[in-house]
Amino acid sequence: MKKEPSFPFPFDEYIKDAETFHGFAAPGLLVGGFMVNKAIRHFPAGVLYEALCETSKCLPDAIQLLTPCTIGNGRLRIVSLGRFALSLFNKDTGSGVRVFPDPIKLDPWLELKAWYMKLKTKHEQDLNLLFSQIKQAGEEILKQQPIQIKPEVYRKISRGPMALCPVCMETYPAATGIPCLACQGESPYVAWADICLEIKIKAKC
Ligand code: ZN
Question: Is 148 helix (H, G, I), strand (E, B) or coil?
Answer without folding.
Answer: strand
